[in-house]
Amino acid sequence: MSIPAAFDYHPAKTVDEAIELLQQYGDEAKLLAGGHSLIPAMKLRLSQPEHLIDISKIQELAYIREEGDVIAIGALTTYTQVERSELLRKVFPLMPECASHIADQQVRNRGTMGGCIAHADPSADMPGVILALKAELVIQGPNGKRTIPADDFILGTFETALEPNEMLVELRFPKSPARTGSAYIKLSNRASHYAIAGCAAVISLDSDGTCSSASVVVTGSAMQTTRASATEAALVGKQLTDDVIAEATSHAADGLELVGDIHGSPEYRRQMTAVIARRTIKSAIERA
């Protein structure tokens, strides 16, 4: 069995305490929330932090609440809490739907909303949903809080806009207009349940059925979770016939740095990205 390199363990009881520890140890420290991504990486020695800051007991960061036209979710809210939330089932059914397809129940019981997007694994499910719903992320550091759009947060594979002395504390989702439908579909690896190719889509329709807005995000296929901008542009302002959807989703992988591995070549992922995107968008339209 793999054993992590030696590290010092620091349990933090508050956000301020966690940030003080991040300031003290800088790049030598990692935050531990659910741990389902960090601990395996440490056991394989792909990550070797000298200091582990455990934030899992900061209960003030575990919540789902309605604040006017926004739904606020604390960074330590688990997938299970998302999956079982009646508020989210009513307002943002996409999130409980996605959460129900993540790994297994043990992972969902510990994995957190903030941890998943801060980790920025390109094959993870929830970051695609967070981008598709156009969330704003609240980040806290020694100089206070700042807010950044989810689209500007993920910079690359396991790379985000977080500074070494900052932590993600909240995700904020603006409510969608009427006649909006959403869906998340993936082709998953049978062993890990990660996405080989996945798509999250949020589609809004005018009263005559014309697409007024489209948010389409690709997961799994590329080196980072990415918005399919060409597909979105090809949908907006049109009646979403099968031909329009097929043409739009043929561009779903445009501009992506596609992954090639034992689970599929870049060419295979390009094709599956288009197929999954088409199915996802059709499902979202039906729900709208």
UniProtKB/TrEMBL annotation:
KW Oxidoreductase (keyword) present: yes
Domain FAD-binding PCMH-type: from-to ranges: 2-178
Molecular function GO labels: FAD binding; oxidoreductase activity
Domain of life assignment: Bacteria
Keywords: FAD, Flavoprotein, Oxidoreductase
The UniProt record lists the keyword Ligase: no
Entry protein name: Carbon monoxide dehydrogenase
